[in-house]
Specification:
Distance between the termini: 45 Å
Number of helices: 7
Low-confidence stretches: none
Shape: globular
Radius of gyration: 18 Å
Order of helices and strands: EHEHHHHHH
Structural class: mainly alpha
Largest sheet: 2 strands, parallel
Mean pLDDT: 96
Helix content: 55-70%
Length: 162
């Protein structure tokens, strides 16, 4: 996700190819950053959705690992369900991408949205869930640990027997 003039992009594209495979010019200067922040909005909301779904399944008495496995074969399948859903089920929140970094990106999203008069209500909710984790010492947890904030609200952990 790169922003800038097309001729400059074409000139430096071979250098970008050394750093990654999916190289896309998304527009002018600053648009790469906008795309990065948009990505972080999607990831945060997907983590929140997976957390809610697995928490719901667990609270209803279903095995969240088996529910996750079943969902992986359907329309709900996603990289977040695959990777972060497994972390939620296995309770492994060692950092891959830390909550504090995701908070920084969502702050960029929310402040930019506010500046242009745009409401991002679910992004704000995701940020508050990250804030709740940070308040409990979780700034350095993997962002999949957002589920811990949801678990506090539900008084139930994913995988806990009912």
């Amino acid at each position: 996700m790169v922003g800038g003039p097309e001729d400059t992009f074409e000139t430096v594209k071979p250098l970008f190819a050394l750093m990654g495979k999916n190289i896309t010019r998304v527009g002018g200067n600053g648009d790469g950053q906008t795309c990065k922040v948009a990505n972080q909005i999607i990831v945060a909301l997907n983590i929140e959705a997976v957390g809610e779904a697995l928490l719901f399944a667990s609270k209803m008495g279903a095995d969240p690992a088996k529910v996750r496995q079943a969902l992986m074969g359907g329309f709900a399948s996603s990289r977040v369900l695959e990777v972060h859903g497994e972390r939620m089920v296995k309770r492994t929140f060692d950092p891959g991408f830390r909550i504090e970094l995701h908070q920084k990106d969502l702050n960029l999203a929310l402040s930019s949205a506010r500046a242009v008069g745009l409401s991002l209500p679910n992004t704000a909710t995701a940020q508050e869930l990250f804030n709740a984790c940070a308040a409990r010492g979780g700034s350095v947890w993997d962002h999949s640990a957002m589920v811990r904030a949801l678990e506090l609200l539900a008084n139930h952990e994913v995988g806990q027997k009912v």
